[in-house]
Amino acid sequence: WWLRFPGCEEKGRPARxxxxxxxxxxxxISDTHFGHEKACTFLRPDGEKxxxxxxxxxxxxxxxxxxxxxxxxxxxxxxxxxxAIPRRGLKVLERxxxxxxLVRGNHDIYKLSDYAQYFDDVRGCFYxxxxxLSHIPLHPELFEQRFRGNIHGHLHCHNVRLPDGSLDRRxxxxxxxxxxxxxxxxxxxxxxxxxx
Length: 196
Prior knowledge:
By secondary structure, the chain is an alpha/beta fold. The protein is built from three helices and eleven strands; from the N terminus they run E-E-E-H-E-E-H-E-E-E-E-E-E-H. 35% of the residues are buried.
């Protein structure tokens, strides 16, 4: 992702270079559940803990550290829902780098004004570069004729599968449990869809 910004003009004459270029990265994440104590008690189908943390504070701190290790202040990050439970968990967002866009999830039940102070934009779903971004995976009839795939959250440790049990590669799950509680880079999602 390359952004162009007008060059600075010197007093009395135009700048020699009309544009300054710098790299801005795009990131994806979902289901952080900041502040959610009960999320630390959820189990995987095999009986193992879904999240390897003793409490919400420990989980929140680990996710803040991993987020800020990769997301820079000018990077764009799409949070695909279920940000915080309870509302006070939203305060964690003050500590996170990046220009944030929220695609609301089923647990994002608070007033828009509660989210607007932390996010540049809040949406129900979002079309982005041939892909539909949503919280809950979309039925394939909703996107397969128009979009290359569905980037989503909601499923935590699970993935959308075909009837034979194999991964349905039309879907990319951005839940924190899928990437060691860190954001995915957009390029990782693209490599997945390209079969790499």
